[in-house]
Amino acid sequence: MILIGTGAIIAIVVTVVLVGAMVALYFAGNKMQQKQIEQREAINAASQSATLFIIDKKIMPMKDANLPKSVMEQAPKRYQRAKVPVVKAKVGPQIMTLICDESIYDDVPQHGEVKAMVSGIYITSVKTLHKKTKKMQQEEAENAPKRKRSFRERLMKKQADYQKQLDYEVAMKQSKEEAKKQKAEEKKKKDREKKITV
Questions:
Q1: Of the residues 68, 69, 118, 163, which has the fewest C-beta atoms closer than 10 A?
Q2: Cα–Cα distance for residue pair 164/162, rounded to 1 Å
Q3: Can you tell me the distance from the alpha carbon of 150 to that of 155, in angstroms, rounded to the nearest whole number?
Q4: What percent of the chain has pLDDT over 70?
Q5: Residues 6+ apart with CB under 8 A from 184
Q6: Tens digits of per-residue pLDDT, 89-103?
Q7: Nearest to residue 119, comparing CAs of 71, 173, 82?
Q8: How far apart are CA 124 and CA 116, in angstroms?
């Protein structure tokens, strides 16, 4: 009979627990990523094009952002204290407070006109309309004093990079699916033509 020391037993138990935790995290991560992709597709489907004049932008707690009551009532309590990127913009004659996607927050000019895709009060993408505004934005970024980014800003930057990568992967997947459909349709057409000629 082989005797195993207590140290070896502890090591085996810890290894098994760690492997179980990694497997659980992997499946949970996949599930969350799938959910995020579905949410992103729903937001993109509901988004509309609008011209906005950006008055101000800030990262602030949701409860201080002066958002509509219905939005605050729907948001869970823990998110009401979380900081979100908020944009104050003029939409036509109205001045509105909108929530901006963190991945595009840096692309939103402080003062300038943009063409944006808006889903409800959520800005999903922006495009600067005037070249001057883009040039001014670049000059401001170059002339701004170099400061150390906070932990939150570094996390936001990473999240923005991951979001861009995810959007790219989703677009690639959709284009591959469309290409497959097109090939299948062409094949069906050729088969039909062969049957007709025979």
A1: 69
A2: 5
A3: 9
A4: 85
A5: none
A6: 888 888 888 888 877
A7: 71
A8: 7
What is the β-pairing status of strands 48-61 and 122-128?
A: unpaired
Give dist(CA 101, CA 78) in Å, integer: 19
Nearest to 86 by CA among 114, 113, 69, 67: 67
Question: Tokens 């690639």 sit at which residue?
Answer: 172
In contact, 57 and 112? CB cutoff 8 Å: no
Q: What's the pLDDT tens digit per position in 103-147?
A: 788 778 877 888 888 888 888 888 876 655 556 656 665 665 666
Q: Other C-beta atoms within 10 Å of 185: how many? A: 10
Query: What is d(CA 171, CA 165) in angstroms, rounded to the nearest whole number?
Result: 10
Instruction: Classify 147 as helix, strand or coil.
Output: coil
* Residue 164 contacts residue 125 (beta carbons within 8 Å): no
| CA–CA separation, 53 and 126 (whole Å) | 11
> So what's the pLDDT on residue 85?
85
Question: In this structure, what token pair is assigned to residue 139?
Answer: 């000059």
pLDDT tens-digit series, residues 45-77: 777 888 888 888 888 887 777 777 887 788 777
Helix (H/G/I), strand (E/B), else coil: 125: strand
